[in-house]
Design goal:
two-stranded antiparallel ribbon; eight-stranded parallel barrel; alpha/beta; 10 strands; 327 residues; TIM Barrel
Length: 327
């Protein structure tokens, strides 16, 4: 396993990590989730990603039970949670980034995960109803109380993250150190354009999600539509409509041909492409099968096969490289 600095912090995070969205507490049996965590940990993974909204808290319950069973040294791994969407009845005070929900959400997540503190605590979305200063103050309080070690954001804009840094500096509070954005061959603008100044001047770390574009870049949708995938989960019709487009599938076919030429499976090819970006701290893997997870770990050794010529050929296929904004 390769380890990278998480932004400008001193903590080392595994380049590949394990996430639980749509799988733990929902798509797979608890025993399978347990096996995936054990496989990941044995491979050197030291970061396990979660959120209050994942299976409405059940995902954290499953992960927490596994952590208690394994009884790994607490100093050997990191676990995250995210706050915003809530996990209860969706009443006004049960969601968002108010001080009330952040504090109560953290306490509840700690209980579900059965940990004394959460390593990375993310604001799962920006909250237009809550002043960013209130959110920064609440996160700072949790750090001072020892309930979280670092805080970050997920799917925030560069402007919103910068505002959080400005408020932190102005009021002598601890700023966010990490953002969790979507990043893959089809979703590139934030990491390759919007965040460049944040990487350079604030040392922003990233824990990227959906590196395989919800499985589209695995190649499994090139022929028939499998019945055991996330696209068939009730309530995720939007995910299917966004990702399974004719244009994307045509690009996937071309990418698979290129991957075959250099001796890589399409998933390893797509993951290696993400890992090649120096601003990626860790790539969060999602898996429903142990064999699938083990294959994905080989992506680390595949990065060296993405030569300059191969990268040029990838750009020729994708035709979506972000044009850098004028600063």
């Amino acid at each position: 396993m390769e380890y990278r600095k998480l932004g400008n912090t001193g903590v080392q995070i595994s380049a590949l990590s394990l996430g639980s969205w749509l799988t733990f507490g929902k798509q797979i049996e608890d025993s399978v989730a347990e096996k995936l965590m054990a496989t990941a940990y044995d491979a050197g993974v030291n970061f396990f990603d979660n959120a209050e909204i994942y299976a409405r808290g059940k995902s954290e319950l499953v992960m927490g039970a596994a952590l208690k069973k394994f009884n790994w040294q607490r100093s050997s791994y990191m676990v995250s949670s995210k706050v915003f969407f809530g996990y209860e009845d969706n009443k006004p005070t049960q969601r968002g980034l108010s001080r009330k929900h952040i504090i109560e959400g953290c306490e509840a997540a700690m209980k579900r995960l059965q940990v004394d503190y959460i390593d990375l605590y993310f604001c799962h979305r920006p909250d237009k109803q809550t002043p960013i200063l209130e959110t920064v103050q609440a996160m700072n309080t949790l750090i001072q109380q020892g309930k979280i070690l670092y805080w970050g954001t997920s799917e925030w804009s560069a402007q919103e993250i910068l505002q959080a840094h400005l408020e932190s500096a102005r009021h002598h509070l601890i700023a966010p150190v990490v953002e969790q954005p979507q990043y893959n061959m089809f979703e590139r603008k934030k990491l390759e354009d919007d965040f460049l100044h944040l990487f350079k001047y604030e040392g922003l770390g990233t824990t990227i999600w959906s590196p395989l574009a919800s499985g589209v870049l695995s190649g499994k949708y090139l022929n028939d539509l499998p019945t055991d995938t996330r696209f068939n989960i009730e309530g995720l019709e939007w995910l299917k409509e966004r990702n399974l487009t004719v244009e994307k599938l045509e690009k996937v076919k071309a990418l698979k041909k290129l991957a075959d030429e250099i001796g890589l499976s399409l998933p390893k090819f797509a993951l290696a492409w993400c890992l090649k970006n120096p601003n990626v701290s860790t790539v969060i893997l999602g898996a429903s099968k142990d064999s699938q997870l083990k294959e994905n770990f080989d992506a680390l050794d595949s990065v060296k096969l993405l030569t300059e010529d191969v990268m040029t050929n990838i750009e020729t296929i994708l035709k979506n490289k972000p044009a850098l904004s004028d600063f």
